[in-house]
Design goal:
Length: 71
């Protein structure tokens, strides 16, 4: 998979299997208050390291914090 170079990433750009998480309103508010972060509109693909966020410890932490939800 190529690195993501344009944000936000719309859900129709990846399958649910390739991009299993979406940003929440909480993530949108958090990112908007920090100009060094890419935009994270609620309902768009959650990204980590220029790739769609995948299942694992980071995803579990972000779900717990309310930043993302599974599709």
């Amino acid at each position: 998979m190529d690195k993501i170079k344009r944000y936000p990433v719309q859900p129709d750009e990846y399958t649910k299997e390739d991009a299993p998480y979406l940003y929440t309103a909480h993530a949108e508010t958090y990112a908007a208050a920090r100009p060094y972060l890419e935009p994270r509109p609620a309902g768009t693909i959650a990204c980590f390291g220029h790739q769609p966020l995948q299942h694992g410890p980071t995803a579990r932490a972000w779900v717990k914090a309310g930043y993302v939800v599974e599709r």
